[in-house]
Structure formats: C-alpha cells, structure tokens
Amino acid sequence: MTPHVTLPLARGMSLSAEQIDTFARLGYLILPGFLPEELASRLRSEADHWVDQGLRAKSIACTADPDAHGLPPVMELELAAHGELVAYEPLMDALSQLMGSDFVFHHLHSDRQKPDLPGKAWHHDYEQRPQTDRAHTMIHTLHYLDGLDAGTSSLVVLPGSHREVAEKDARAHLDTQEVPGEVVIDHLPAGSTVVVHSALFHARRALSGGKRGKDRYFVDASYCQVGPQWPPVKPYWRHMLRRARALGLDRGTWPELFAERHFSEYVRPA
Prior knowledge:
This protein has one domain: Jelly Rolls (Sandwich). It is built from seven helices and nine strands. The chain has helices at residues 17-26, 37-52, 55-64, 66-69, 80-86, 89-99, 237-246, and strands at 28-31, 103-113, 120-123, 138-144, 154-157, 183-185, 192-197, 202-205, 216-225.
C-alpha cells in the first residue's frame, strides 16, 4: 500500500504546476475540502431527496430499460445544487488546466451509499469502444460531501494505470483485493474532491470486519476533452444536454459544455 499525496487547493486559486504534474503522472489529484460547506450541505439535502423519493431508482430503471420506462421524471442536474456543481467555477478552472478550455459534460451521478454497500471491483470508466488509445482526456470528479473516514468505504486507486490501454473490466477478476502499488484514500475532510483520469483503475473497498459505518454521500460528475465523439452512457443523453442548456447551467461561459455534436449514438450494453 502506498501513501497518497494530498495537495490542497486554496479557494479561489488555480492549480499549481505540481498539481498538474501529479495528475499527469499518477492519474488522480486529491483536493481536500474543495467544496464550500454551504454548497456541500445543499448537495447532501438534495441527495437525501434524490434517494428517499425514489428518484435515483427511477433514473436507474430508465437507463436500464428505456423502452419500458422512458425519460426519468427528474435528473440530478435539475436539482439546484447539483446543477450548480456541474459548472462550479473553481471546478471549471481546474478542468481547463488539466485538459484545455474545450471540454464537454458527460454525466452526473449522485447517491447516499449505505454503510453495508458491497465493494465495487477494480475497473476504469474511460468511455471508448473499443479501447484503442488515450489520446484525449476524460475526467471523473468524485465529490465526497461528508469526506471519508473509518466509518465509510474507501476509494482505492492504482497510480499510473490511466496510461494503459485496457478494457474497463481487465482487473475485475481481482474483485477489490489489494494490488501492488495501490493507494488507499480513506481519510478526507467534508467537501473533498478527487479528480481522476477516467482510465485510472480504481475500486470501492467496503468496510471490513463487520464494522458499523455511516452513510457515504457521493456525487460523480464526468467531463471529456473535445476531439472525438464520445459514447454516452445514458440513453436519454440528448434530453439531459437539452435540459442543461435550457437551465443555463453553462452560465454563458462554457459554450461546448452541453453540445450534442461531441457524442456518438447511444449503444445499449449487452
């Protein structure tokens, strides 16, 4: 197990050269306390609403079987704080430093994960079919609204693996077991964000030994460098981008953020 490197980002400040280099080499960047408490608190309240009102379950059903369920009644980005997070100015500034000023929003997931949630096996989330290169950058921003501690499952990453060209499930046979060179991220303050190259292999490691834990508030927002046509992961991706434009979530500053031309047609997973 390798200790992880935490590089704070002072509010209102851009990334340092060290942070940019760290992301390029390791494939991830930890920004402790990145989100202000006021925003994190509103996001937590919306996550409770999203889960308790069954909206998350409906969204999953619409993704799994669009023919049967059609469009979701509400999407995450239609919730006020979640919509604000999508183009949160300090986040946009960081992303523009890591992959250039032209990038497009890919998707948003939000959840309140129960303490007994099983782990998630080693995988990456780089959308490319088939996996052929890493010429363009895709980034997942993982926002831990209450942070991470001994009462939550941990995030485990494999530094440098974002440079490999491999299928998403190439390490799935390892489940969540420890692998050489891994980094365990298990202690972060509230409002922390982990920026990961989407091709970085990572896992969610569940609490061990029957420990009693707590809910883990988690929001995942993903963005892609403009260049290729990226495969969408939601069958209603056009509806999602149209709603984002209608709500003005780009704040008139990021014209490519919700442009449909950067995506190929949706292909339902086998």
